[in-house]
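Budget justification note: compute hours in this period were largely spent on complex prediction jobs such as the one shown. Inputs:
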Amino acid sequence: MDDDAEIIAEFLVESHENLDQLDRDLVELEKQPGSRDLLSSIFRTIHTIKGTSGFLAFNRLEQLTHVGENLLSRLRDGEMAMTPPVTEALLSMVDTVRALLGAVEATGSDAAGDADVDGVVAALRAVLDGEAEPVVEPVAEPVAESTAMVESVGPAADAPGVEAVQPTAETPIAETPTEEPAAETAADDETARRGVVESSVRVDVDLLDSLVQLVGELVLTRNQVLQRTEDQDDIELVRAVQRLDLVASELQEGIMKTRMQPIGQVWSKMPRVVRDLAVQLGREVDLRMEGHETELDRSLLEALKGPLTHLVRNALDHGIERPEARTAAGKPAQGRLQLRAFHESGQVVIEISDDGAGIDPDKIAAAAVQRGVITRDQAARMETREIVNLIFRPGFSTAAEVTNVSGRGVGMDVVRTNIERIGGTVDMHSQVGQGTTCRVRIPLTLAIIPALVVGENGETYAIPQANLVELVRLEGEELDRSVEHLAGAPVLRLRGHLLPLVSLAEVLGRRRPDPDALTVVVVQNDGQRFGLCVEEVHDTQEIVVKPIGRQLKSLPTYAGATIMGDGRVALILDVPGIAHAHGVAQITEGSAESSTSESTDSTALLVLEVSNGRRAALPLREVSRLEEFDVARIERSGDAEAVQYRDGILPLVRLTSAIGLAETVRDDDQVSVVVHEAENRRVGIVIDRVLDVVDAAIVPSDVGRRAGVLGSAVIQDRVTDLVDLDAVVALTGVGA
Amino acid sequence: MAAAASQYCTFWVDGLFFGVAVSEVQEVLRYQELTAVPSGPEAVHGLINLRGQIVTALDLRCRLGLPPRPEDALPMNVIIRSRGEVVSLLVDDIGDVITVENRTGGALALEPAPANVPSIVQDVIVGVLPLPESILLVLDADRAADVAAAPEPTGGTA
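Corresponding output:
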């Protein structure tokens, strides 16, 4: 019994692999209809399954593959040509075989399951008969022993025959199958022939995982031994330990490699997906794939399957237009879908690009506003790229009609969630009429990552290198000069940019006395940066990421844990989690994120004092820097004021007069300037002082509306003018 | 009550005599070094390295609302399996593995916990076994290990 189960398990594994190959071969075959090599390969695969299923008494499977085999043998021998109906029939056979194998896997028998074996057998027969040649052999041997078989012969004669041919009538698949027989393409086949990997062994995944675990243990033990033998005089022992060191390192590397698998495993499914969809949607698609061999950890590969398939479906459904529309737009009728995978700075990048209609930012913005994903005001301020990426927001879909392919308003946000769950990012670029490129970045592996080890209150913590930008150390005077507090929120001026600071001690729920030196780890999450102030920085290390128990899963602070060289456990900090939990995610991200979580439209605002206690506010996202200038540096050109700033001229505008208030008479020798930068313009807005940064849901009112002021709102219980930045900037004469 | 396991791994927590079905216990370890989890649930005393596996250590005293262990007393680890994970319960002292039988050699029936036992304790026990010399509180390993579900103590998640 156990032997049987083992044989069946092996049969299943083998067959599933074979079927993947078969899918690829069949699609390829449509392009090279006569390829004898491909046909032989397909024939062999089906033949193998048939043989084994006969041996294991899976009668339905045997019956199905038998008919398929007959068809294939005729194709191989050049007695029949590949036509769309033939391909269709063969593909449906592969699907049914897969379904039957699924039933075998679930129940141990192919009798269960609702696969329509008879129908497919009939369709295959119809194709065989349809070719009008005198068909004798296919109605052959197994009929005798299988009762199911008897019923299936009947329907074969009539209806399904028509049915099987019909769908292909309207099939606009790219290649019109040429009728040339097998012989000619021999040369092409030589290169297309699959590399048979006979030098590989199948290994149970659990075994691999436990090996990874054991090797981790070995490395830890080695580290301890290394420490102990450091000051030993015994030369022999020292040598042995050095060898141990080397071997353990190599072993670790080797074992880790066993977890890596080429992305080709996911891509092998794509030709079939694309073909089926193209047929279903009436598109003509040329699928190109590059970088099959790009490797990544198998757990990541598994997690990527869904999102990638969805992106490909999306490209076909919303990207590539119908052939008529393409021709009308002056493009080739056949659309191009390109998948690329490559390594870039320790990450795997996957690009899915099409040359379709592209994404119209105006449409997206309109739809986003209509669906309440963002407000009209926000839409107006967003850059094209940001708008395009709105499609990853929950509850967003611009498909004019709901298709069963994509466009139910779920999907893209799920794609993003799934990719982010494995530490990746996804980004969309699009040119209207030119096409769309979706770029997915993921770490090579989740199992071992480089990390910066920091110390806080005697404990060690790891920060994934992927989040790391730079380290900044501030001491004494520089500390006072560079770190400012905006309403209690520490902000670092780093090369002119304002960087929100978060203290690790606070993240960990402690208070730390103000230190005389500050070590800032500048980290990045989703393109947004913030500084994490830590007590000590140790070094960078490759760490093995290990899961933490369910009691701790809900904590935003930790991504997992690892074991350090001394055997102690260290927690891995979750940078995105910290960013969200401590509000630094939305300050720089603008109001976008918060508006989806709360229904109100919350915006980070820089609140300023102008003219004797009057208050005004600017969206923080429009502020690129805060500067102080000596009054002496202000130069005049006509009525305009300007300062020399960063190898250029920074035009200045006084906010008080720009918003129609009386100029404050001040005799300071410094002025505070808010530097606003957008596209090609750079303007300095002279203010009295910065009061605060607030993240508030504002309800604008028309009260106080005038030149330079959009209106007012109550911010922190005070009526505050909302500055019309464009109008203010226009005063300087710099293109608004 | 439900058919009770007849073999228990026993331990003491603040004078209370607890037992966990042996089938749920993986091993028992003396004190292990702990890595604290700042801002984690209060009952989570820290993480231990169990041969390369990260195991959450829960302080049963804290979990049961009992007074904290004296500073100089080091807790022992009862490593249990719960919902596919391995969890360590920190206890004061380890007792024997006992076999509970009635006179005819059958498993002794569990009795419901007396009503006046604090509810925080009642929540994590399946029942009690009145043995001749003491009363054994039979712990529900899964519920004991569920900290997120427990009433959130002060200083919990942010």
